Amino acid sequence: xxxxLEHLGLAVHDLEAxxxxxxxxxxxxxxKKEHVASEAVDTVFFQVGGSKIELLAGTSPDSAITKYLGxxxxxxxxxxxxxxxxxxxxxxxRQEGFTLLNExxxxxxxxxxVCFVHPKSAAGVLVELCQSISPLDHD
Length: 139
Known about the structure:
alpha+beta; 2,3-Dihydroxybiphenyl 1,2-Dioxygenase, domain 1; eight-stranded mixed β-sheet
């Protein structure tokens, strides 16, 4: 079950400049900076009420974010929703005809298991499913 809007992911070219901009805009510093080696991205998170803003910058030419920014301008890259049980939601979405970009959930930033729904099956929006995990879990 989808439980809430977890975050909006914003693709940026210059993470330092974007962090400074959003620190000023939101009137607060980010609560977390993280490198996700498996995705070749650096991330910065801001808490905004019950949701978050995630800034993403690619760290290699092969990064999905770097490729995305080669075709599109900076801005909203994905919408992420918290789910209770990511594997159950993945199965439900497959059964409903959605195309998922990964067969199994993988570790993402901010202590989450994640899976993406292909934009072609979600009205042009890249949707991320997120399930909170303990840093001690090994899924």
